[in-house]
Amino acid sequence: MQMESIVSLCKRRGFLFQSSEIYGGLNGFWDYGPLGVELKRNVREAWWQDMVSRHDDMSTLPGAPTPFSMEGLDCTILMHPQVWKCSGHYDLFHDFMVDCRESKKRYRHDQINGRWVEAKNKRIFVTAQAGDDEQQKMEQRALKFFNLRAKNSDDLQWDGGVTCLTEIEDFEQVVGPDAKKAGTLTEPREFNLMFKTFVGALSGEEGAAYLRPETAQGIFVNFKNVLDSTRHRLPLGIAQIGKSFRNEITPRNFTFRSREFEQMEIEFFCHPDQSADWYRYWRDRRMAWYTKLGISSDRMIMREHDDAELAHYSVGTADIEYAFPFMAEGEYGELEGISHRGDFDLRSHMEGKLDEKTCPLEVQLDEDGKPKWKGSGKDLSYRDDLTNEKYTPHVIEPSAGADRAALAFLCEAYTEDQAPDDKGKMQTRTVMRFHPRIAPMKAAVFPLVKKDGMPEKAKEVYLDLKREFNVFYDEKGAVGRRYRRQDEAGTPYCITVDGQTLTDGTVTIRDRDSLEQQRIKIDECAEVIRKRINDE
Ligand code: ATP
What distance in angstroms lies between residue 338's CA and the mean position of ligand 1's atoms? Predict the structure, then answer.
């Protein structure tokens, strides 16, 4: 319910639109509208400032084992195809999917749940897409299949609990999530999530290239370039923000699972002996970042992967997860993953060998038993000029999604409360309580009425603030209505020019959250906004 209100506010106020909407949309693609683009820019900007541009190379930051350096990078989306072979994406980055011959829909094999049910001497495995309403959907589908009315639901004999479709071997008795008949689902098929394209005039395999499914690989292959050009010593973090593409089989939950999205990734290179400490440092620091920007700690968890879930090379992986309103009670969705990747990536790009544990040998070796693909052959190890020790650095990777972060901020901000209207009557208001740093607009400037020189003065204030902040000018309608519109956009301050302004140079400044109004000098407005943005 709450999610529906958020989605509708996003469209109405211009945070998010479906891509190519006038042509019916394109599933898994989203456009950011005028408010959304500012919100997402602020998310990226906060991340870049906090991780890169404001980073202090000299001091030991709280919780960090030693001082370290940070640099930025901006790599291309298309890279040499060999990158994806050595990274493992070419062979391993796939999901299993099943198609429904009847409904023509496609599903991720591991995202369909079902239950065995019997009625009228027939037994079927009735399914639904995994989600909080799956039980209800299964019952509705079973009733429909057996042609029973809701009041006869006792005729359904359920056998066992909810089971994932991956546990079912024969699909003959399976009724697909959108099918009327049983046995319409195809066998699961592997489906590579990378989008393929062709570079230059070659349309055959020679020209084949892939849109990057993560920004990380651009950092690994440039590790040496960054090190040589900056002359940093390790530990060094390299950060990148950019688009990634995954041909997700079932994009859903608004922008949470999209096919084109933006990542904010750091690859942090350090000495193997220190990597466990750095892993803990980054895990805790990244969690604190979301809290600082207003995500409440009771809606966010840090989930350490257990041994079974860990990639073999990984000493640890933790996901920062958020209780998105579209998730079932007690469930969370991943905002960011922080993983300890050992020397796996640099080694793969040096030697070109995938590991036996992640990839079967027959995939890696050709008929003569030789590796099918080679790494760059370049030495990507590091020599410490003080100790003269040479080693392949270990990597800690905090990998965040800009769209998922923006969505979490949107969900967290959405609030309905009671506030007095122009006549003092209490009304329900919708307010987006964004942290001022990520709020799309920092302030709105209003003349109380459209006469007596107020608009002229208000425009002056507006233009002055505009040089530093994204501010909005509005003179249309009752002032109460103008406040409400800004509350919905999440604007932390409304500054009103009234009759008194013209005599003593003061304005009222109204706080979005407390609704308090203060009188301050025009010259103080910028300082008030600046302080709140910087959390002073
Ligand atoms: P999931 O399990 O949800 O598919 P993942 O574990 O595959 O995510 P990573 O490969 O670790 O994700 O990517 C790092 C981050 O990139 C994720 O934490 C998420 O914020 C973002 N991300 C990944 N896939 C998508 C997507 N399809 N749409 C939006 N953001 C995504």
Answer: 12
